[in-house]
Amino acid sequence: MKRLHVHSLLPALLIALLVGEYSSSDKQPATEAVLVGPELPAAPICGFTHVGGVPSQLLAQPVALRANVGQFPTPTSTKNPKAQAYFEQGMAYLHGYSLVEAARSFHEALKHDSTLVMAHVGLSRVYLQLEDHPAALKAAEKAKALSDYASEREKAHVELRFAQLKAVDSLSNQKLLNDYRNKVYTAVRKFPTDPELWLLSGNSYEKFATGRGQGSTTGSIAIYEKILQFAPNHPAAHHYLIHAYEGMTDYVKALEHGKAYARLAPNLAHALHMYAHDLMKTGNVDQAIAEMKRTDAIERNLYASENYDAMYDWHHIHNISLLALSYQYQGRIQEAEQLVKERFAIQRPINLERTFYNKMGYPTLLIQQNRDAEALPIADEMTRGKTPGERVIGHYLLGMIALKKNQLESAKASLKAAQTELVEAKKIAQTDWLNAWLDPHPKFLAALIGLHDPASREKGLADIRKFQASARDQTGPDPWIEALFQLEMIAQVAYQLKLNDFAEEATKVLAAHDPYYPGTHFALARIAELKGDKPTAERERQLARQGWSKADAVFLAQNFPKNK
User: Rg of the Cα trace of the chain?
Assistant: First the structure.
């Protein structure tokens, strides 16, 4: 297992508290006693024309109540049943990373009860995830202004908003992060039956104060697992455990929680998508594709019925990206190409520095399919992109094309340009997100250059082994499968360069990463042939054919020519 971190003794103390005081019932009261005051006027839209790149008008657009999106009883001070229902819908969408729908639900709750403090707290959390700190702070201030209508527990939630935002404002400040964690701990001790506080406590033990369940530590896992002992049907706890166990490369355990999340929230796009993550990693790519197609249908129906552009939902880009990679896994290149072309064309109003994520899939697929002439002008245009990330990927792609032509000096020049742009990209990045998404590409090019260059072959082999180790450490769904294709290419290049011993070694690394992949069986067959083991070669080749049974005819002809 990997990435086991414990930041302090607080998680253990929280567990002890949970065991002693948490109610064993899933059912929480919908309301709680508060001070009663006159009804306030309806809360205005957040006051910004855009929040995190999304039009405020869209975030406040009316929304209907929906079933099965991951709602869980979450007590508030409201006496209005519709306000309560919309609030719980907002929390379900918030925990499911459907940020536009979460904001719409919280705004709708405020239309039914303008004094609902927790709806403003929810909006503040949404805006933080949209990476709009001023809007998140303004929503927190609105919640604080309504303190006369809040219970003591709700006031604790408001206080936590300011503590988290202060820590987010200085992400590298460990003291502020620890202060936030301590405040969460204090709130949990005071209100031990509040599941939202427990979830926040799990989130707070991530590396950064922006933690939202995607970078869990062992302390976080212990908290989420303990919550499920008392509330086994809490969708958010299952969701965060999927991410946690993926980070530990325990994909079987992650799959268990993915299945539960999909069962508890069958109409929530991200719940189905999360289930697909680990179906893919445990060899059931057909079902993973089915879940991602269901995810895609939910999203496209939503955009059509609610009349807004897919570009405002980050999740759509992510889902079609992973779906395309899964099609590629099966050799279904035409279907993959359709999705990566769509992804390439989508604008990115949020997180502009990550535009390269939209752009890189299409030209990468073209290069992998030996359609370099089509990829070349796209890569060249990306080297003049508006963001450093685009330029990194553009130079990387040009280097890959040059390397395929054995133009080593040109490839080295492209690598140098990519590395220069990477430095610029990291200067403007708010977190270490780019380390996971951008770093592997120049490193991959550098490793392949070293492998190709006879003058520095020994160093090249050392470098490429370092890259392989780094690729094997990728646990997120997109990086994991992108690493798979990169490891496959290393084994293929080693074979083409007649580095037979290293080709066998590289194939074993590929098999360790994913023993189910048809390309793994294809590479194993190639090594068996080199060693004169015809029965093994034939068996592995048949397994590759079986795994690629749905592949395009062109793909099959390239990999299984009739004259062989």
Answer: 25
- Three-state secondary-structure class, residue 54: strand
What would the two tokens of residue 81 be? 């049943």
Q: Is 55 helix (H, G, I), strand (E, B) or coil?
A: strand
pLDDT, averaged across the chain: 90
pLDDT surpasses 80 at 33: no
Distance CA 17, CA 214 (A): 24
Q: Dihedral through CA 376, CA 378, CA 383, CA 387, nearest 10? A: -160
Is 25 a residue whose pLDDT tops 80?
Answer: no
- Phi-psi region for residue 159, left (φ > 0), alpha (ψ -120 to 50) or beta? alpha
CB of 398 within 8 A of CB of 380?
A: yes
Judge whether residue 466 has pLDDT over 60: yes
DSSP H or E run through 403: helix 388-404
Number of residues that make up the chain: 564
pTM for the full predicted model? 0.90
Asked if residue 378 has pLDDT above 50, the reply is yes
Within 10 angstroms of residue 68's Cβ, the number of other Cβ atoms is 14
Q: Which stretches does DSSP call E strand in 334-399?
A: none
pLDDT tens digit string along 127-154? 999 989 999 999 999 999 999 999 999 9
Side-chain half-sphere of 42: how many Cα atoms within 13 Å?
A: 10
In the block, tokens 């993959």 appear at: 336
User: Pairing relation of β-strands 50-51 and 54-55?
Assistant: antiparallel
Nearest to 217 by CA among 437, 450, 471, 4: 4
